[in-house]
C-alpha cells in the first residue's frame, strides 16, 4: 500500500479579472444609485408641483417688503388646505387684463391680499377702508396711495390684491379681482439675498 499525502493547494496568482461576487456588488451599487436619483427627482417634482415653488421678484411693486431680485418660496398647500387672510402675500396667475392695463405680459404676479370675498372696499386720501373701517396696514408699505379705490364689493370666491408700493403698483385697482382658483400659494420665506432671509 502506498502512502497518500494530502494535496496542498498552490496559491492562485491574481489575474486582475473581477470575480462574480465583485461584479454583482458593483451592479447592485449602481442600481441603488440609479433608484436613489430617480426617487430624488420624483420627490422634487412632486414637491414643486404640489407643495413648494420658488419665484423671482422682477419688479418693485411690493417694495419695501420685497425687492427686485428677491427669491421667494411659495407654499401651495396653504391655499388648498388653509385659509387666505387679509395681509397675506400671495403668488397668483396674472389676469388677462394685466397686459392691457399694465403693459406687462407676465404669467404670475405677487401681491398682498387686501379684500376678502364679500368685503366692501373704498379709499379716502391714503386710507383704505374695509367694510367701513380704516384698514390698519401692519406691514411695510409706501404712501401716497396713488390710484384710489372706488366703491368696490368683492364677489364670492374672489380677492382684491394690492402692492405694498402703493402708488406705482398695477393691481386690483386697475385689473380687478383674482379668483381663488388662480392663487398658486402663499409666500412664506425669502431665501435670497442671504442677508435678507425672512419668514413671512
What does this structure look like?
This protein has 200 residues and is α+β, with helices and mostly antiparallel strands. The chain has one domain (54-199): Ribbon (Umud Fragment, subunit A), CATH 2.10.109.10. It has helices at residues 20-51, 77-80, 97-102, 172-175, and strands spanning 52-56, 71-75, 89-93, 108-115, 120-124, 127-130, 133-134, 152-153, 158-162, 178-179, 183-192, 198-199. The strands form 2 sheets. Strands 1, 2, 3, 4, 9, 10, 11 and 12 form an 8-stranded antiparallel sheet that branches. Strand 5 (120-124) and strand 6 (127-130) form a beta hairpin. The chain is elongated, with a radius of gyration of 30 Å.
What is shown here, in short?
By secondary structure, this protein is of the alpha+beta class.
Structural class: alpha+beta
Gyration radius from CA atoms, angstroms? 30 Å
What do we call the CATH homologous superfamily? Answer: Umud Fragment, subunit A
Report the span from N to C terminus. 96 Å
Tell me what the CATH architecture is.
Ribbon
Uncertain stretches: 1-12
**Beta-strand content estimate:** 25-35%
Helix count, DSSP H or I runs of 4 or more residues: 4
Q: What is the fold named in CATH at topology level?
A: Umud Fragment, subunit A
- The helix content, as a percent range, equals 10-25%
Number of strands: 12
Amino acid at each position: 500500500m502506498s502512502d497518500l499525502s494530502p494535496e496542498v493547494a498552490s496559491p492562485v496568482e491574481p489575474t486582475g479579472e473581477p470575480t462574480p461576487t465583485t461584479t454583482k456588488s458593483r451592479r447592485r451599487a449602481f442600481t441603488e444609485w440609479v433608484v436613489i436619483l430617480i426617487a430624488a427627482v420624483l420627490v422634487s417634482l412632486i414637491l414643486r408641483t404640489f407643495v413648494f415653488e420658488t419665484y423671482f421678484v422682477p419688479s418693485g411693486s411690493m417694495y419695501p417688503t420685497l425687492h427686485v431680485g428677491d427669491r421667494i418660496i411659495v407654499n401651495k398647500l396653504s391655499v388648498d388646505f388653509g385659509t387666505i387672510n387679509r395681509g397675506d402675500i400671495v403668488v397668483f396667475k396674472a389676469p388677462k387684463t394685466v397686459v392691457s392695463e399694465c403693459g406687462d405680459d407676465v404669467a404670475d404676479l405677487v401681491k398682498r391680499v387686501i379684500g376678502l370675498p364679500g368685503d366692501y372696499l373704498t379709499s379716502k386720501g391714503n386710507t383704505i377702508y374695509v367694510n367701513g373701517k380704516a384698514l390698519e396696514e401692519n406691514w411695510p408699505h409706501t404712501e401716497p396711495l396713488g390710484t384710489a379705490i372706488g366703491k368696490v364689493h368683492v364677489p364670492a370666491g374672489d380677492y382684491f390684491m394690492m402692492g405694498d408700493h402703493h402708488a406705482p403698483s398695477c393691481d386690483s385697482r386697475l385689473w380687478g379681482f383674482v379668483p381663488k382658483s388662480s392663487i398658486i400659494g402663499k409666500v412664506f420665506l425669502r431665501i435670497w439675498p442671504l442677508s435678507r432671509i425672512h419668514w413671512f
